[in-house]
């Protein structure tokens, strides 16, 4: 089982778990006919963590979220939210969470204000002052009917509806779908505030920079299986270090140095990827008249692409 | 440069970009047209065959003509009854008005669904991003709809021709095709009206409501024209009146096609023009996009359900009230024609023994039962739409269970159906009381409540399908209703055995107020519905939520 955090909770559904573990899945599997949408998913997310959940289209991200919410039934395995079974005690679990879907299909004839009122009443708890603040922050006109909203504005409604509840757990499925960059910034501020308040956040997203900026932990899905889960630092081993060396004399042949690959020379500047131990490279550089040396750890995007087999050198380097 | 590649270009799809939308629409419209064509054809054929099996002698036919031929009340409701001593005259009288109205409803619902409904769903935007304009795309949809009308006409004509070949019926191919043309002409006009209102309204629902209003006004004007109070010329002020003027089988007047064709073309031109004159997603009639919040009902999913269906339910309520009132108003006159006539035998066979207003209402209340059952189907499909559109998720990801939502929706639906029955009974009594027809309030009220159990049975069957096979909800519930209707229509001529008759929910309904409601049978229908609802409710909690 993937462990996120420094403790290991024994048992399933015990009192301690309610207090310390926000989400726990064990062998969670969903099969549609012959297709495995999700296979044997097991992980724990401690309370108060912000976890990014990555994967390409069809990897199983939304399936995971729908299983956690009890919207679909698992073929095998089980999931808990704050120790509450997601299938059999879904209503109790839902008291502790708020959800933002990627597609905001709301009631077209209701206004934004009416929708927020309704969803707040169904949730049973709303921080009214915070709701007003969120409406202002996201620059939403609540007097408009939903059918007159743009896609981004509909997304604002579901975001506000989730955030205004101050729930212990926020389950976000591509929450910034359709938001402009200014609103994305507003969203990130809200997530930072939620984290400071101790709320747990489970964020499924395609936007690497968003996950990199917000999340403590990252899980990566591939073909319905969780292939990596951990902090960014723990995942650095998955991709190479990017090194750029500038020489004041003749450029040595670095392609044969152990661990070095993808060597590209531009005059007296050489860019390369280094995997594993950097000592062999440093020994060669020390005797080769190096004028300048830059190194950069792989970005989340590079890590992600490394897992999916794309050539990281073809991606845009992070600033 | 690779010249070979440059020459080849994108792969051809085998269909001109200028006709893709037309083909797409035609596929859907033809499917629907074929289904309704069967229904139209069977209604016409069963009317003709029932006439020759019930009215065997010339004397019987003459008595029928005397009874209904100059009856202003039935003329107002169902159109004039010309040459009832012939199979052709009776067929037109029995089938025409029902099918003209059904055709109009089919037309307006089909065109608003395939025009405004596609636009609301966002699919229209994808098509408009191709090699077309809004006007051309609208014209293509209209061409596709025309193919659907063609299918409707062809099936109606074919079945009528086949039935007409019977030596007793004897309707030649030419008149049969003209009858089919007359019957689908209301569908054509209301397809056009639906296309126009799709440009006027902001949503499909609004567009359908505008078109339905036109239909209601047209029916009312035609009714006034046919009521025998010197307003006959008003017929020319109603599209439905133009259809009547075609007088198929009895005294065909092809010239009456001129206003129908001219009106349809003018409306379609206006629709295509407006499609290009407005923004995508916008309406021609100004749409109030800002509103002050009305929060009274929005304290939970139950209130939300009431808020969402209230305008539709009010529409059904008005339709049921008007129907009840009209039936009450004509009950005395129509019932009087039953006394001592051969119709008494027919009414007895239909489960309404005796004579007078009671007997007439006993048979005529089937129409009210059908309206209430349609309302039940509407409730079921509306509930399923909440799930398929993804809106239900917003409720059940909160501390609110699927069961609570399901039983809440059913509670609202049951309340609506019971109130509909009460409205039917109340307004029928108002009609009978104003004409001193001698039918008591308690009698009409119980007759009104008597139409509720079949609707509850259909509601329960719909709830069952929602729970176990949600994607089939619409097909299954409309299927049960349509099947029951067909069995009633064909069963009326005694052509079906009791096993088939028993499959119709309406067959189990007593012909109140001609006879007392059979509350035992009604209880069984309600129990069947309740059992379906219980299984459906259980199934809903055990399955995945499913989109379209």
The CATH H-level superfamily of the largest domain in chain A is: P-loop containing nucleotide triphosphate hydrolases
Proportion of residues in helical segments of chain A: 25-40%
Provide the helix percentage of chain B.
over 70%
The CATH class of the largest domain in chain A, by name, is Alpha Beta
Number of helices of chain B: 21
- H and E order of chain A: EHEEEHEEHEHHHEHEHEEHEEEHEH
What is the assembly state of the chains in this entry?
A: heterodimer
How far apart lie the N and C ends of chain B? 46 Å
Mean pLDDT of chain B comes to 89
Tell me what portion of residues of chain B adopts beta-strand conformation: under 5%
| Total individual domains of chain B | 2
> Biggest interface and which pair forms it?
A-B, 40 and 35 residues
Strand order, largest beta sheet of chain A: 7-8-9-4-10-11
What's the count of strands of chain A?
A: 15
Q: Main beta sheet of chain A, described?
A: 6 strands, mixed
Low-confidence stretches of chain B: 1-8
State mean pLDDT of chain A (0 to 100 scale).
88
Radius of gyration of chain B: 25 Å
- Beta strand count of chain B: 0
Q: Please state the structural category of chain B.
A: mainly alpha
Shape of chain B: globular
Detailed description of the structure:
The complex is a heterodimer of chains A (319) and B (548). Chain A is of the alpha/beta class and 319 residues long. Chain A has two domains: 2-235, Rossmann fold; 240-297. In chain A, 31% of the residues lie in helices and 29% in strands. In chain A, the strands form three sheets. A six-stranded mixed sheet of chain A has the order 7-8-9-4-10-11, sandwiched between helices. Chain A has a five-stranded mixed sheet with strand order 1-3-2-5-6. In chain A, strands 13-14-12-15 form a four-stranded antiparallel sheet, covered by helices on one side. In chain A, helix 4 packs parallel to helix 6 and helix 5 packs antiparallel against helix 6. The longest helix of chain A has 16 residues, at 181-196. Chain A is elongated, with a radius of gyration of 23 Å. Chain B is mainly α. Chain B has two domains: 16-284, no CATH class; 297-542, no CATH class. Helices cover 72% and strands 0% of the residues of chain B. Chain B contains 21 helices and no strands. The longest helix of chain B is centred in the middle third of the chain and has 36 residues, at 301-336. Chain B is globular and about 65 Å long. Chain B starts with a helix and ends in a 6-residue tail after the last helix. The model of chain B is unreliable at 1-8 (pLDDT under 50). The chains are: A alpha/beta (319), B mainly alpha (548). The interface between A and B is large, with 40 and 35 residues.
